[in-house]
Amino acid sequence: MSAASKIHKATWCAFRNLEQYRTKAKFSSSAIGTRNELFNQEQRRQQDAVGRIEKIEIRYLGLPEDVTLLMNKHISTPYNCAQHLSEGHCKRSALALIDGTIPWDMHRPLQESCTLQLLPFNVSEPHVVNKAFWRTCSFLLGAALHKSFKSEANLQLHSFPGPNIKSGSFVHDIVLSSQRWQPSKSELRAISAEMVKMSAQDILIERLDVQQELAYEMFKDSRYKSEQLPSIGKQNQGRVTLYRVGEHIDISRGPMVASTRFLGKCTIGVSHKLANEGSSGAFYRIQGIALPSGYMLNHFAFGLLEQRAQKLNSARLPHEPFEEPQQMQIS
Amino acid sequence: MNQADVSKLISQLRIVVRPKNRNLKNPDGPEGRLLKLRKTVTALVKHERIELYYNRADEARGYAELLISNAIRHGDRHKPTMELADYWLLEKQLVHKLFKVLVPRYDNYNVSYTRMYKAPRDYPGMYYKKSVLELRGNPYPTLCADQTQNRNLLHNVLLDEARKEFRREKVADLANKLNVATEAPKKTVEESSDTIKPTAI
After folding, report:
1. For residues A115 and A153, which has the higher predicted lDDT (pLDDT)?
2. Which of A16, B86, B95, B145 is deepest in the core (most CB within 10 A)?
3. Could you say which protein family the record assigns here (chain B) (predicted)?
4. For the residues A42-54, what does the mean pLDDT come to?
5. How many domains does chain B have?
């Protein structure tokens, strides 16, 4: 009898899983599916376009010793270089530094011979990594919001301003179809939980440079993104940089940290209504605060930071007209 | 009534000591165990930082602490302490080091004299956990870099900015209060004259 009940239980569970899967599939609408499909195609195309493999010399500077690595042009990434060094280097390095000045994503193929430094969060001069981390947090917040809202809420991500750690919070600006959305504490906690879930899943953050036309096609259903694309393309010779985490794709200048694993403590603290948008929608600014994983901070100090993160961030507002066209690019 | 205060009879250690000792598997029995520990304590006093298996390090640590603590309490004119030092330190020149170097160093300490870290074990290799045992105040570079002093780390940047903002608000508050105070006397005089009048009538 017990066996029978077990089988029944198993089938029931499978059925429920299937149902969940179905609802999920319905929710993660076709637009996201096609966007990801286009992303995959372009990624594959770029990989195939490499053609004949050429070698480049990468001079690694740092612990345990300086070495020269012979890597593949347009294929090998800083992460591959780290794999030649040790597992610890692979796990700890959040960002790479090329020629001592240019920050480079860990999973972005190297273009030519250069020197390479791998940056964990506890280097003595961590400005570059901190900035990349803050930007990544804004980006991940977008992904978490996408997962948290039902399709009825009509969530549209607008953009996120450049990372400014001193402001005390990272930001993502969104548009909702409601004009008086007041998130409760538990709702904000649910969004924070989505962030934490993502960090537990250890998802790679992928980067892809695409032509402006392709970006148009990918974001044709998103009104605000397609409005932003021309100015971004103009600044960058018609190229647009996209980032993907899981299924979520967004436009960003980069660089970002290598994986969601680096996100440690995280709180989404507040949502400020900025302005009405159209007849029924409104701009909201979602703010949060996060620390890289492995950073210890006692709850009182973190509480102070959380309190400060609730004040409205003074970064440029999304509905304000741009003063200078040069600054139009979202970060 | 005339009993001595038991807690003062032996040195109180500043580390956590297990209620039961470890036998440290050895063909020579308890004697062999003690010889092992004597070697470890000697090495610790000699080199000031040693890397070894966790069990042996943790066991030897208590004896090293006790030895240093007694040396500080009783000095080098105390026969039992001298015997203790003679027993635990296999190389006799280290007895001099104990009384002339370590005792002055630890005289004013209010924390333990030794420090123990967990160390990574070899993989693949012996399963036993490893550790690093060291005397405090040794001349080697620290094993754990102190991250609290680096003001550029993310949490320090955030905390510094929060502190600055807090001060800015305080100053603004103070300025507001001063403004109110400078404007207030006139008002209070008027008000007080107003309030006094009815009572006078």
Report:
1. A115
2. B95
3. Belongs to the bacterial ribosomal protein bL17 family.
4. 94
5. 2
Mean pLDDT of chain A: 87
Q: State how far the Cα of B166 lies from the Cα of B3, in Å rounded to an integer.
A: 58
B160: DSSP letter: H
- Cβ distance A133 to B150 less than 8 Å, yes or no, reads no
The alpha carbon of residue B145 is apart from the nearest alpha carbon of chain A, in Å, by 10
Partner A contacted by B111 (CB < 8 A): no
Q: What was the pLDDT predicted at A278?
A: 85
Residue-level pLDDT at B199: 39
Pick from A291, A304, A308: CB nearest B154: A291
Closest chain B CA to residue A300: B159
Which of B122, B154, B160 to mutate against chain A (most A CBs within 10 Å)?
A: B154
Q: What is the 3-state secondary structure (H, E, C) of chain A?
A: CHHHHHHHHHHHHHHHHHHHHHHHHHHCCHHHHHHHHHHHHHHHHHHHCCCCCCEEEEEECCCCCCEEEEEECCCCCHHHHHHHHCHHHHHHCCEEEECCCEEECCCCCCCCCEEEEEECCCCCCCHHHHHHHHHHHHHHHHHHHHHHCCHHHCCEEEECCCCCHHHCCEEEEEEECCCCCCCCHHHHHHHHHHHHHHHHHCCEEEEEEEEHHHHHHHCCCCHHHHHHHHHHHHHCCCEEEEEEECCEEEECCCCCCCEHHHEEEEEEEEEEEEEEECCCEEEEEEEEEEEECCCCCCHHHHHHHHHHHCCCCCCCCCCCCCCCHHHHCCC
Q: How far apart are CA A105 and CA A257, in angstroms?
A: 7
pLDDT for the residue numbered B194: 46
Q: Do both B187 and B122 map to the same domain?
A: no
pLDDT, tens only, B47-102: 999 999 999 999 999 999 999 999 999 999 999 999 999 999 999 999 999 999 99
Count residue pairs from A and B with Cβ separation < 8 A.
50
Q: What is the pLDDT of residue A27?
A: 41
Interface pTM (ipTM) of the complex?
Answer: 0.85
Same domain for B79 and B115?
yes
Q: Are A133 and A262 in contact (CB under 8 A)?
A: yes
- Domains along the sequence of chain A with CATH: 55-120 (3.10.20.30), 128-313 (3.30.980.10)
Pick from A8-12, A23-27, A139-143 the range whose average pLDDT is largest.
Answer: A139-143
pLDDT of residue A98: 95
Containing structural domain, residue B67 = 6-135
Quick check: A264 contacting B, CB < 8 Å? Answer: no
Instruction: Report yes or no: B159 at the A interface, CB cutoff 8 Å.
Output: yes
C-beta separation of A175 from A284 below 8 A? yes
Among the listed ranges A28-42, A126-140, B107-121, which one has the minimum average pLDDT value?
A: A28-42
